[in-house]
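Q: Got a minute? One more chain.
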Amino acid sequence: MWERDVTATPKTAMGTTPRREIEDRVMQEWAELATAWGVSPVLGRIHGLLLLNGQPMTAEEICERLQISRASASVQLNATLDWGLARRLFVPGDRRQYYQADQDHWSWFRRAAIVRKRREFDPVVERLGEALATARAAAQGDAELVGLSDRVENLHRFVGELFRGLGLVLEEEEALLHYLLSLSPQDVDELRQILRAAVGRPDSDTPAPNPNEAT
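A: Always. Here it is, folded:
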């Protein structure tokens, strides 16, 4: 249970003009990012506001700051919860609901990406698998469909491996991901060489052998 600091400055205060200008600029960029992600720009502005504010905010405070309707705020706040971008908090003796964004950016991004993968990417792999099964069955009675069946199989394999790789990254331990992301360029090169050796691939800097060159 979170207890609100009633002595704190109200989060809907206008504040200084530079602060509001900076907030508006960041929230606009977050709205553009939300649109590119395929969700409402209002959701992006709300998430951006919660990230910048740091402290829990009520729906009323959010509506006042962003100049949006209560109905719109309610829909998009529920969406932020569904995507794992924020959490709902309750204050003892206060009937209002508060919302707070996770300040660990990798954590909320990973949760949102996992939700998107399960909602949108995984069903694509499943439906491609169904199309592949249909193509294979049809190819047994029609030689002209063998090539089509092979191409569907290659596509299904590619998409499955791509999304499976994405899932491995998203579901990996956070400490390991932070470590990998903090590697220096030299460490990345060394890791790349180790992985290439593991799969039997030569270093990209090593020139390919000349088949016409005498051994």
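A: The first helix runs from residue 17 to 37.
Q: Perfect, thanks.
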